[in-house]
């Protein structure tokens, strides 16, 4: 009897979420849990996209608002606003998103490279693994570790230790 994993079967499993009108996907293996939004404890002098930290069962977890990090138009907090707790670079962090949708399987061949933009100062495509069409939906698949620069990760670690 053999076991099949998502990676070996030619599929990636992604948790899908919304930021504004766009739908994104993130590797399900990075997701620890999904929580309703609660106002985190603010850290002085942190960049605006770092909302603060929360105490998650004794672990101090920095919270990043992806809507601010990616300069999305929306940054309202509604009953649908959630925090996805992720494991990134051997650390836990939370990301604020407008809503989570579902878990989808994306065949590896369905993941298309993201278009390259001439003016890379406006759009940092390094964190986009690709674009996938799932049924009628267009999904932007992101690499959260690539999205957060080394500087961001340093600021997050500092925030977690300062709390």
TrEMBL record:
<dbReference type="InterPro" id="IPR036061">
    <property type="entry name" value="CheW-like_dom_sf"/>
</dbReference>
<dbReference type="GO" id="GO:0005829">
    <property type="term" value="C:cytosol"/>
</dbReference>
<keyword id="KW-0963">Cytoplasm</keyword>
<dbReference type="InterPro" id="IPR039315">
    <property type="entry name" value="CheW"/>
</dbReference>
<dbReference type="GO" id="GO:0007165">
    <property type="term" value="P:signal transduction"/>
</dbReference>
<dbReference type="Pfam" id="PF01584">
    <property type="entry name" value="CheW"/>
</dbReference>
<dbReference type="GO" id="GO:0006935">
    <property type="term" value="P:chemotaxis"/>
</dbReference>
<protein>
    <recommendedName>
        <fullName>Chemotaxis protein CheW</fullName>
    </recommendedName>
</protein>
<dbReference type="InterPro" id="IPR002545">
    <property type="entry name" value="CheW-lke_dom"/>
</dbReference>
<feature type="domain" description="CheW-like">
    <location>
        <begin position="11"/>
        <end position="153"/>
    </location>
</feature>
């Amino acid at each position: 009897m053999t076991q099949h994993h998502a990676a070996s079967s030619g599929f990636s499993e992604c948790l899908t979420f919304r930021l504004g009108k766009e739908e994104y996907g993130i590797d399900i293996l990075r997701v620890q849990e999904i929580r309703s939004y609660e106002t985190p404890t603010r850290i002085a002098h942190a960049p605006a996209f770092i909302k603060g930290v929360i105490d998650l069962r004794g672990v101090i977890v920095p919270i990043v608002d992806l809507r601010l990090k990616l300069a999305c138009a929306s940054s309202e907090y509604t009953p649908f606003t959630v925090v996805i707790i992720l494991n990134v670079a051997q650390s836990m962090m939370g990301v604020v998103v407008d809503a989570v949708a579902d878990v989808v399987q994306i065949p590896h061949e369905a993941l298309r490279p993201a278009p390259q933009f001439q003016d890379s100062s406006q759009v940092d495509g390094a964190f986009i693994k690709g674009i996938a069409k799932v049924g009628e939906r267009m999904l932007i698949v992101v690499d959260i570790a690539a999205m957060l620069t080394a500087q961001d990760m340093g600021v997050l670690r500092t925030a977690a230790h300062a709390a």
